[in-house]
Structures are given as structure tokens and as C-alpha cells.
Design goal:
By secondary structure, the chain is an alpha+beta fold. The chain has three helices and six strands; from the N terminus they run H-H-E-E-H-E-E-E-E. 26% of the residues lie in helices and 39% in strands. A six-stranded antiparallel sheet has the order 1-2-4-5-6-3, with helices on one face.
Length: 147
């Protein structure tokens, strides 16, 4: 993993998030952080057979999850020690993605108060755009206990 945090504090927060991600959906899907800063997040997924749908291309749910994960991480890096959740995710599938390396790039393009707006894209390792999207994220109060 080649992570490029901007500050030492950001590196510490990124390590905290990595610890929290162990055993979660993030871990299950197989995301790897390649670059993470307040300016941009880059993830990688080695898409395998279990990521494909019945016609042999990467499942749309996997591609949507990759965008959500990358954009979500971007919001968390901009708002350290706060909790952000997806309130809206728009996904456009523009070309089929096959098994192999996928690269996901995301950035926060706007923030105001408790709302952040992001853009993201999923490309094949040779630069073919497969999926692009936008997301709106909300800063929420931490949940201390689930009834």
C-alpha cells in the first residue's frame, strides 16, 4: 500500500480508519488504498470471479460500492474525527468492467456545514472509464449504542 497522507495527523487518522475497517464490508470487498489525502483518494481492487455478475462483467453493486468507499474515505479525511454517511449516491455505468485491476479515484468538490459533495470514477488499469458517480455525504452525530 502506497499511501501519501498530507500531514502526520492525517496519517494517524488514516491508520485509525484502517483499523476500524478490518472485518467490515470494506475488508470483504477487497479494497486497497493507493493514495489518500484531503485532495484525492485512489483505491484499487483486483476484481476476481466473485466480483462478477452472471454475464461475466464486474457487478454494478461492486462498482457502486467502490465509488461509495472512495468518496466516503475522502469525506472522512476532510472531516477527521467526525462521522460521515452517504445520503445520496448517483452512479453512471458507461462501459463494462472485466476481471482484473480496477482503479477508483474520488475527491470532495464542495462542502458546507454538515454536507459534502464528491465525484468519483472507476477505470480499468489501462484507463478505460467504466463507472462515474457523484455522492452527497452528511456529517452525523456518533451512534453510542444501538438498541
Amino acid at each position: 500500500m502506497s499511501v501519501k497522507p498530507v500531514t502526520e495527523g492525517q496519517e494517524k487518522w488514516l491508520n485509525t480508519l484502517a483499523e476500524r475497517a478490518r472485518g467490515t464490508f470494506w475488508d470483504y470487498i477487497g479494497c486497497e488504498v493507493m493514495e489518500a489525502s484531503t485532495a484525492k483518494v485512489v483505491l484499487r481492487l483486483q476484481a476476481q470471479q466473485h466480483h462478477l455478475n452472471v454475464i461475466g462483467i464486474v457487478h454494478g453493486g461492486v462498482l457502486s460500492s467502490l465509488l461509495d468507499n472512495a468518496m466516503g474515505l475522502a469525506t472522512m479525511l476532510l472531516r477527521p474525527n467526525e462521522n460521515t454517511v452517504t445520503s445520496n449516491l448517483n452512479v453512471n455505468f458507461v462501459a463494462p468492467m472485466k476481471a482484473g485491476e480496477l482503479v477508483v479515484t474520488a475527491e470532495v468538490i464542495h462542502q458546507s456545514g454538515r454536507t459534502l459533495t464528491c465525484t468519483g470514477k472507476v477505470e480499468s488499469s489501462n484507463g478505460i472509464l467504466g463507472t462515474m458517480g457523484t455522492g452527497t455525504f452528511r456529517v452525523v452525530t456518533p451512534i453510542t449504542a444501538i438498541p
